[in-house]
Design a protein that fits this description.
By secondary structure, this protein is α/β, with parallel strands linked by helices. The chain has a domain at 7-100 and 173-256: 3-Layer(aba) Sandwich (Rossmann fold). It has 10 helices and 10 strands. The chain has helices at 51-59, 81-90, 108-118, 126-139, 144-147, 157-171, 187-204, 215-221, 239-244, 249-256; strands spanning 7-18, 25-36, 40-44, 66-71, 74-75, 91-94, 175-179, 207-212, 224-229, 232-238. The protein starts with 6 loop residues before the first strand and ends in a 14-residue tail after the last helix.
C-alpha cells in the first residue's frame, strides 16, 4: 500500500506588495504552494524574483498583503508572541549570510543552550546539556571543546554555517527554510553542508525548502521545484519534469545560462 504524504505547509493566493500607488512593487504575486512532509523543495529564481520575500512570509518575519498560509492543514495564526514562538518551534531557517545571523554579544554556548531551552530542555542538568551540545557539534564535524566560550565572529564562515546546522539538529523543526545556505563558502564545504542537511532530513523527516538561484543545486537535491519570476510561480513539478523538460521560456533561459565545462561559454547574453 502506497504511503500518502501529508501537506505540512501550503499557501493560497499569497501576495506581498511594498509601497503605495505608482511606487508600489508586487514582490509576491498570488503564489500557491503545497509542500509535503519529508520532501526537499527548491524555489528557484534570479535576484529580485521574490523568492526571499516569500521565504520571509513563510517564516512569519513579514506580513502578507493578501492570501493565506496554512500549517499542518490549519490557517496559520501568529497573532501573539506565544503563538509566534510556538510556530517557530516547528519552522526554522538558515540564511545566506552567517555573519549577520548571530548576536555578536552571545557566546556559542549561549546560542546552543537557547536551542535546548526552546525544545523544553531548560530543566536538564548542565552535564546533559553539554552532551547535547557536543552531539550537535559532532553531527556537523565540529568539536564542542574547541568552540566553547568563543564568540561566533571568532569562527570562519564555513564553521558558522555548520553551527547554524547544529542549531537545527538541536531544535529539530518540522520545516527548514535554507536561503542560499552555501553561497558564501567554498565548494568543498558546500558539498559537506548539503550532505549534512540531507542526513538531517533523513534523520528527523524534516521538510527542507531551498531558496536559490542555482538551478543545478535544485536539480541535485530536490523532489519538487518551483520556478519564480517577478513574484509569480511560472513552472512547478518534479525536478526531472522542470529541469529536464522545461516548458516555461524563463526556465529554459535559466538552464541555458548555466555554464558547461565541456562547451565554449557564450557570454554575449551577460
Amino acid at each position: 500500500m502506497a504511503i500518502t504524504k501529508q501537506i505540512c505547509l501550503s499557501t493560497s493566493g499569497l501576495t506581498k506588495i511594498f509601497g503605495f500607488g505608482r511606487r508600489q512593487t508586487v514582490a509576491v504575486d498570488h503564489v500557491d504552494l503545497n509542500l509535503y512532509e519529508g520532501e526537499v523543495v527548491s524555489i528557484v529564481g534570479e535576484s529580485g524574483s521574490g523568492k526571499t520575500t516569500l521565504a520571509k512570509i513563510l517564516l512569519g518575519l513579514i506580513n502578507e498583503t493578501a492570501g493565506d498560509v496554512f500549517f499542518q492543514g490549519q490557517k496559520r495564526d501568529i497573532s501573539s508572541h506565544q503563538k509566534r514562538q510556538e510556530y517557530w518551534r516547528n519552522i526554522q531557517a538558515i540564511f545566506q549570510d552567517p555573519f549577520s545571523s548571530y548576536n555578536i554579544f552571545n557566546k556559542i554556548d549561549s546560542v546552543l543552550l537557547d536551542c535546548i531551552n526552546m525544545r523544553g530542555g531548560r530543566g536538564l542538568a548542565r552535564a546533559a546539556k553539554v552532551e547535547l551540545m557536543r552531539e550537535a557539534c559532532s553531527f556537523v564535524n565540529l568539536k564542542f571543546e574547541e568552540l566553547t566560550n568563543k564568540y561566533p565572529f571568532e569562527l570562519s564562515g564555513g564553521q558558522m554555517q555548520r553551527l547554524m546546522i547544529a542549531r537545527i539538529f538541536l531544535l529539530k523543526p518540522k520545516i527548514l527554510i535554507a536561503d542560499e545556505p552555501t553561497s558564501m563558502i567554498d565548494a568543498c564545504s558546500r558539498a559537506t553542508i548539503l550532505d549534512e542537511l540531507m542526513k538531517l532530513r533523513d534523520e528527523i523527516k524534516m521538510t527542507i525548502i531551498f531558496i536559490t538561484h542555482d538551478i543545478g543545486l535544485a536539480y541535485y537535491v530536490s523532489d519538487q521545484v518551483y520556478i519564480m519570476e517577478r513574484g509569480k510561480i511560472v513552472e512547478s513539478g518534479s525536478a526531472d519534469e522542470v529541469i529536464l523538460r522545461p516548458r516555461a521560456a524563463y526556465t529554459q533561459r535559466l538552464i541555458s545560462d548555466v555554464p558547461k565545462i565541456h562547451e565554449e561559454w557564450d557570454l554575449s547574453t551577460v
